Amino acid sequence: MIRRAIASREMILLGAIVLLLGVIYTRFPGFVAPNNLIRVFNDTSPLILLAIGQMIVILTRCIDLSVAANLALTGMVVAMLNAAMPDLPIIAIVILAMGLGALLGMVNGVLVWKLQIPPIVVTLGTMTIFRGLIFVLSEGRWVNSHQMSAAFKAFPRSTVLGLPMLSWFAILAVILFTVIMSRTTLGRAVYAVGGNPHAATYTGLDVGRTQFWAFTISGALAGLTGYLWVSRYAVAYVDIAGGFELDVVAACVIGGISIAGGVGTVAGALLGALFLGVIKNALPVVNVSPFWQMAISGAAIIIAVAFNARANRTRGRIILKRAEHAT
Amino acid sequence: MKRRNFTKFATGLGLAASLMGSAAFAQDDTVRIALVVKALGIGFFEAAAEGAQEAAAELGNVEIIYTGPTDTTAEGQIEVINSLIAQRVDAIAVSANDTDALVPALRRAMDRGITVISWDSGVAPEGRQLHLNPSSNPLIGNMIIKLAADQLPDGGQVALLSATTTSTNQNIWIEEMMKVMDQYPDIEVVSTVYGDDLADKSYREATGLMQTYPDLSAIIAPTSVGIVAAARAVEDAGKVGQVNVTGLGLPSEMAGAIESGASQSFAIWNPIDLGYSAAYLSYMLATDQAEAGPGAEIPMGRMGTLTLDDNSEGAMADPFVYDASNIEEFKDIF
């Protein structure tokens, strides 16, 4: 029953995206051309990667506001590394970016797990620390296109089977985490910890440790995205992806991931990110005044959340049928 | 007046005492000019400091103190200014993070006989003796459309990619550009979009422009984040040679775009010249060789003469054009 309800919520979101594309089609037909849809998906890939990480964190009743800063710091580190050592193979850079990102995520995780500081406070703090560290490392300087090696910049845009690598990373992450969340102990533990921490403790799950791993995964994905982002835009500076953490949280909320924890799927995060991505890419071409664009993005988020709130209201499980009828 | 003389005497004694034994008596007639920037570590200001050093070398008995806060806040600059007042520098040349917030601190400096000028980003008239603009808004407005038009002898469609809808500088430059559009009858400005100075949004807006206007010939971005992102978008859309990205940007950031051909040329003031002029002007005022005021003409070495308007503001020069011929030389500077 519950599973069907969740599935149907994702169907509603998918319907909303299709409807949105239909509306855009009436104003700018070129937008729904297959090539352009691939471009939109590619443009949304960083958001998808971060939304999946954020989803796992939110499922455990935490929140990670440091993802964008983590992305920027990792991006800056690999960009500086590439500028200093242009011969370092790309695979090493990708692994390094994920490793560093995971390490930064672990810092969040340890603070939440061992010191029991509320996650919103921890990640607000680390967000500022990470941005500060970029400043310290780079001394405020940009790493520019001409300082990066050709291979470093070419990797995310090299096409395999018609899709850029950037898109493949998002697709792989979706598949990998769908399996992890539904088929592994860690995935099930994440749901259990978020759904009912007390019950999870009684079943022998360490709530803090599960949260720690959630932050680590979110960090690793943010680190990976950091490299992809920096090489895609061919520039690294202190403020890259400024305010992007809000987009990531918004994508999760739109995707039906409950801020109260325990409810949400990878498919939801994917669709939530795509919904935002379509809006962001469509607004420049549908000829809407820039003064209205922000209001429209905001309204879309609130409408989506209102939908979810309605869906959540019927979530209570009826244990005693007779008592239910009595009231 | 008497009282101030006494304080000066007292600090003079104090200074002499503190310098005793360090054999630095000769420094007494050294003019100490503090170059206060928006934040340390920004390439543009580092280059300006280089220019100031050049002026110092030319003038001889000048010491440049290059300083500023670590982030672009007015509070940070006020602290820096207060400490400079305590150090009794001869002149403060500031690029302000806030037009009004610095005024009280700078007035205090002027009350103590310190020469105060603002450059690059100005301070309200009551807080400084003169303001040095790197260029003037009409010169910039004219330059950005000229850069685009020079590559389009047969005319064509151009679009503007600005920062945010509320960015004062960009809005004024675009307004000034529109005023001279009748000189370019074959150029049509089809749209103005806003990238909010975010790389990803600017990239999307530039991509949107190329989709909406398939015949677009140039994107003018008078903002450093926007111009880089637009160049990237043009490269990714495979429209190099068809769409020329131009506007205002820094040579180090635009070197890649010039190399790929996405941008033929762009402009920015030369920060070296700017720092040089700021230091030169500070020296002229601090040594009483010139006086600031509406209509005054103050020499600034190799940059010619600065003419002040009614607000005691002056423009240094036309923005400097960078293209394939000089990018190699400047990309490592700023």
TrEMBL record, chain A:
InterPro entries: ABC_transp_permease (IPR001851). Pfam families: BPD_transp_2 (PF02653). It comes from the Bacteria. It is a multi-pass membrane protein. Its main location: membrane. CDD domains: TM_PBP1_transp_AraH_like. The chain crosses the membrane at residues 12-28, 48-81, 88-111, 117-138, 159-181, 212-230, 251-279, 291-311. Keywords: Cell membrane, Membrane, Transmembrane, Transmembrane helix. It is found in: Cell membrane. PANTHER family: ABC TRANSPORTER PERMEASE PROTEIN YPHD-RELATED-RELATED (PTHR32196), RIBOSE IMPORT PERMEASE PROTEIN RBSC (PTHR32196:SF72). This is ABC transporter permease. It comes from Roseinatronobacter alkalisoli.
TrEMBL record, chain B:
Residues 1-26 form the signal peptide. Coiled coil: none annotated. It holds the Pfam family Peripla_BP_4. Residues 33-287 form the Periplasmic binding protein domain. Gene3D superfamilies: 3.40.50.2300. The keyword Signal applies. Keywords: Signal. It is found in: Periplasm. Belongs to the bacterial solute-binding protein 2 family. This is Rhamnose ABC transporter substrate-binding protein. The gene is rhaS.
